[in-house]
Amino acid sequence: MGQPIPTPTAPMNPAQPGRLRRDSRTWRRIAAQVRARDQDKPCGICGQPINWNTRNPNAGDAPSVDHIKPWATHPELRLDPANLMVVHQDCNRAKGVKRAALPSIGNQSRNWGAPRKRSLTQPHAANEHS
User: What is the mean pLDDT of the chain?
Assistant: First the structure.
């Protein structure tokens, strides 16, 4: 009774109820389609080339299929090819369930996200603008 019922389109992982099995035939088929679709694209996280010729599927620069919007927050998109992208194994591992980072567009001119420091203890001099 406690075990989820697998469906033909989403075989479930009994160790984690509600989670699609990564070794399921359905996942392998969809992942293969995404790898074929994205074969000429760079990593969807870091923007660097993917090593499609590696013999080690666990190598850091090997291709891995990842969810753009994570399963945890968007379970309805877990088998949607439009929500999948090819990334490096290392980028996928580092990302975890966080949102995908945008590829770097260069150096920032300053830290735009940091609050600006303002001194409230030293008022302007009365004749400063005279």
Answer: 75
Q: What is the pTM of this model?
A: 0.58
Phi-psi region of 108 (alpha: psi -120 to 50; beta: other; left: phi over 0): beta
The answer to whether position 112 is within a domain reads no
Strand 12-13 relative to strand 16-20: parallel, antiparallel, unpaired? antiparallel
Radius of gyration of the chain (CA): 23
Q: To which H or E segment does residue 94 belong?
A: helix 89-95
* Structural domains counted in the chain: 1
Contact 20, 13 (CB under 8 A): yes
- Torsion angle of alpha carbons 78, 80, 82, 88, nearest 10°? 50
